Amino acid sequence: MSKKLFTIISLLILASLVLSACGPKVKEGTVATEDVVTNYGWTDTDIPTLDPQLGEDEVSINYINNLFVHLTNYDLVTSEVIPEAATSWDISDDNLTYTFTLRTDIPWVNHNPETGEVKQEVDADGNPRFLTAHDFVYGIKRACDPNLASYYSSVIAPFIVGCADYLNYEDPENIPAEMYDAIGVSAPADDTLVVNLPEPASFFLSMTPMWTITATPQWAIEEYGDQWIEAGNIVTNGRYVLHEWTHGVSRTVLRNPLIPEDMYGKGNVDKLEVNVVPDIATGYALWLNNEVDESAIPNEELQTQLSEFADESAQVPRLTVYYIAFRTTKPPFDDARVRAAFSAAFDRAAFIEVVRQGYGIVMNHFAPPGMFGAPPIDEVGVGFDPEYAREELAAAGYPDCEGFPQITLLGYSGQGTLNWIEFAQAQWEENLGCSADLIQIEQQDFSDLLTTTLADDAEAPHMWTLGWGPDYPDENNWVGDVLYCTTNTRAKRACSDVDDLIVEARIETDPAKRIEMYREIESKFFDKGGEFPLMPLWFNIYYLARHSWIDYDWAVLGGQQWYNMTIDAEAQAAARQ
Fold this sequence. Notes:
By secondary structure, the chain is of the alpha+beta class. It has two domains: 14-273, Dipeptide-binding Protein, Domain 1 (Dipeptide-binding Protein, domain 1); 321-539, Dipeptide-binding Protein, domain 3 (Roll). It has 18 helices and 26 strands. Helix 13 (415-432) links the parallel strand 20 (407-412) and strand 21 (439-444). The protein starts with 13 loop residues before the first strand and ends with a helix.
């Protein structure tokens, strides 16, 4: 979640999807825009980015997943890695070389919002551009560039020869050209991509659907710079094209008529319009009035929804763990005992009962069930222990919170998050004696929060809310990609012996040994005496109000696959009469 950095926010999902006739698959085409009415709204947030190498949040990743074809993909039911741009792959006996065979019939396209035309891109000589291994080489090497400032660069860097060296070069503005050439990804032919790993990683194949290593159009990026992702400029190759993007207000994607027919998907949704709505309550009211197909449910309405609309309530299998993170270099949270105290003073069970209306599972460590190597949720971590919390705070020099400085807790926007951080504020007053006026709470739009928490100590908050969902189903995606010292760019935790153990667990080939190592790693972070770079709180149980005429499988890993959604348009129209 960050999965990646599932990243992860309180969402309002409002969907009203209508099918239209599919156009012919030609090299130039138009997409029907008249008789399709689609609304798919998210609460109070713009799309942070449509750049595959920069995406780090769920909103961005969902769009990127539908606008771009990735190297591989996840099966929606089994979460197994399946072909996408790559039709097959071979792994060397030493597990250090992955060779992917790619299809060569996926066109790069540009959509003209004014005319509705979708045209295949051509090169300087007028030759049509198709997706090739060279485009993947460019995208992957671009992800290794420190000047791009991508969070997920540090996630992929350890698994590609030379990528970490390039990413961490001491003078980013003057990196020797030979270091770029040494990055371990190559294209011996248009249909062949080779990736070289510095060390074995048994889970590497499960990382290959990630958006960060997808192909990007070098020529368009060089022409438009940061503006290459805007409507009219953006060049894509996926099942949809970007038709309109009015930042913070609305966006629309349309079916790509030039996608190869066998990649079209089983769905019938050809147009998705997104309109930002002010809050969950507004969206839910629209759902009750049949104006939208799907909505998040306000906490206070959840029991009524499940009782009165049981057949139109869908439980979403989200593997997101929500937490409060600490800036470990900013006093007083530069002291692990203070971090432990604040974590142990939060009654997770009461929070789930009172704020979450009983929907959630207490998390005392980081990785949730379903991730390889995740320990049982009730066997590692301090959790709620107010006596221990007071002892740790006193040992740090603040008995009963005496002398404790004023601190800031930053949450992302929305009433749900406000309820969360106000509960935390009250817990620390009740269990630590830290009065509410010592803990200044603020809220920001999610994209702004991501920027603010990367600032230096003077500008960054002391604590902030986030959530992490899986990018691939392995414990390394949690402790390695979020907590490891060099990837922990927000908390800024110093490296320690636990980081050595994270590296050892990553390259260990014996599954049983890896499981033991990850249990020890989680213990070093979240048991008594642990580092507590963040305080895990709960594993989400999430419900949507979903009308019966919309049908799709929720993507546990990777972005949502809108091209596999179907709508019974007659049933939808009848309900709206």
